[in-house]
Amino acid sequence: MNIDIDAFNKKRAAAFNQHKNILKKLSKGQTLLCEQCNKPLQLDLNGQDKNKGMVSCAKGCTRIELELG
Length: 69
Hints:
Elements: H1 5-27, E1 42-44, E2 52-56, E3 63-67
């Protein structure tokens, strides 16, 4: 099995940038919709673990865990 490291790194960087843009928009109060279910995404920084946050939709299709510190 041959792994294309460059392609993997590009895909990972694109996902990171997409998540970063989602965070920026949600923190500014903009409404973003889940790509799967079209429900609004919510930013939760008040979870049980003070060092983690979460971006998710009501159905759970989108779930992005955040390391806060």
